[in-house]
Amino acid sequence: MTYAKQKTKLKLVISIGANIPGILGDPIKTIAAMRPQIEKSILEWNVALNRPKIDSQNIDKSLSFQWAPLFETEPLGGPIDQPKFINTVLVVEGKNFSSVTPNKKAAMCLMKKFLDLEKIAGRERENTKVFWGPRSLDIDFISWGGLQINTETLILPHPRLSERNFVLIPLAEVLSKAQGKPKQIHSPNIWPE
């Protein structure tokens, strides 16, 4: 039996969360305010990767930004008394985007853009001694195609993705929009749940 090879679409997966107010307001307002800034940063990054193939006047048409709904989730790790998080996921793909081979230099450049956006939202990474503590904005780079990186600043794919329902559930929502949700079937006599 032979199978037709399908061209794999390169997707960029980003997780966004917050659980304390920052300079932009409460977590929901912060994430909403940063949404266009995140998209703009990715667009600018994509233009730089694809120059001169992309006309910067038409860049907004070359990428698809697929946002998950907002979810309220319990903190995972960190101080016991911290507030619940607001989380979402962004999946990015597009024609010109998939023409670039995922690479460490480009991934590190995008991660720097995300760290700069966190600072704009009031997050201070340098002055905190609490691991997995409260934050006004957290932008996690989850994956980019099949790229594997292991540096102090960035590990791709995210090493604890399978332990993060606050990423997996929003990601499933985005993917189900594109692919359709599977239909659950019940067969208790054969398959007890």
Account of the protein in words:
The chain has 193 residues and is α+β, with helices and mostly antiparallel strands. The protein has a single domain, classed as Alpha-Beta Plaits (2-Layer Sandwich). Helices cover 29% and strands 18% of the residues. The protein is built from three helices and seven strands. The protein has helices at residues 27-50, 104-120, 165-179, and strands spanning 12-18, 64-67, 71-73, 85-93, 138-144, 149-150, 155-156. Strands 1, 2, 3, 4 and 5 form a five-stranded antiparallel sheet that branches. Strands 6-7 form a two-stranded antiparallel sheet. Helix 1 packs antiparallel against helix 2 (104-120). The radius of gyration is 18 Å and the shape is globular. The two termini are 33 Å apart. The mean pLDDT is 82. It catalyses: 6-hydroxymethyl-7,8-dihydropterin + ATP = (7,8-dihydropterin-6-yl)methyl diphosphate + AMP + H(+). Pfam families: HPPK. Its EC number is 2.7.6.3. One of its GO terms (molecular function) is 2-amino-4-hydroxy-6-hydroxymethyldihydropteridine diphosphokinase activity.
